[in-house]
Amino acid sequence: PVSKLSSPGHVSRLLEQHGVKLKKKWGQNFLVDENILKKIISAADVQKSDRILEIGPGIGSLTQKLAENASRVLTVEIDTRLIPVLRETLAEYDNVEIIHGDAMDFDPAPVCEEGPVKLVANLPYNVATPLLYRWLKDSRNCFSRLVCMVQKEVAERIVAKPGSKAYGTLSVICNYAARCEIAFDVPRTVFFPRPDVSSAVVQLIPYHVPAEDVADDAFFFKVVEAVFAQRRKTLLNTLNAAFPLTKEQLTAVCSAVEIDLSRRGETLTLQEFAKLSRVLYNKVG
Ligand code: SAM
User: Would you say 122 is a known binding-site residue?
Assistant: First the structure.
C-alpha cells in the first residue's frame, strides 16, 4: 500500500502536530518517495523470514515497508521527540520494536545471537562512516547484508580504487570485509526537507572468510590506519614512524614481498595491504 508518509504535506502536518522541528545535526531528511523505498527493499532482498536492524527510522517511512516485508524489525532512533511519532505511524505493525538510543552505543551482538540480521537504513550522515567502519571491523559476522543510504561521497569512498582521492581506510576495510557496490544513486528531490547533497544506496555483503589473509585482523586495521594517516608520505617514512623497525629492516622485509617502499601508501591495493600486514606482523605483531 502507498503510505501517507510519502506525501510531504502529510509529513509536515504530522511533525507539526507533535511539535517537532527538524534538526540538521541528526540528518533529519525523510524519504517521501514510494519508488525509492521499494528499490531499497529490493536491494536488500527483504524476505518474510528476515530479521532487520534499522538505524534512524525518523518518522518510520522505511520502517513501515520493512515491517510489511520482513519477519521482525528492530529500529534505533536517537531523537526522543520522534518516539511518539513512530508509535503512531507504526501502530498497526506488531513486528516492530522501537529502541530509543544512539546507534554509536548500540551493540548489535545480542540481536545476532539467533543468527545474522540485515542492516537496512537511511543512515544519518553524521554516523554513517564511523558506524559502518566499526561494525565491519568488529561485528561483520552479525550481518548477512548491509544496505544503507549514505551521502554520495561516502558511497564513492566505499568503492574507490587505489590511488584515487576517495580511496582511504573506509575503502580498504569495506572491501576486506565485504563485497561492496553502489546499488543506485538517490536525488535530493526524494527527501523532505531536501538535503544539500545527493545520496546513494550501497550494498555490502560480508564475506564468511575475509577477502585476504592478513595474519591478524586488529594488526591489519592498525597498518591501514597508520598508512592513511600519512597518505602522502612514502611508505618507508610512514611505516618507520608507526612501527618499531629501522628503515633497513623495513626495506629487507618489504623487498622480499616486492613492495616498493618509495610508493605512497594511498596507492596500495587491498592485496598489497594484506601482504604488508602479514610480513610486518611476523616481525612485530
Ligand atoms: N529512515 C528515515 C527515512 O528514511 O525517512 C529517516 C532517515 S534520516 C536520514 C536519519 C534519522 O536518524 C533521523 O531520524 C535521526 O534523528 C536519526 N539519527 C541521527 N543520529 C542518530 C544516532 N546516532 N543514532 C540513532 N539515530 C540517529
Answer: yes
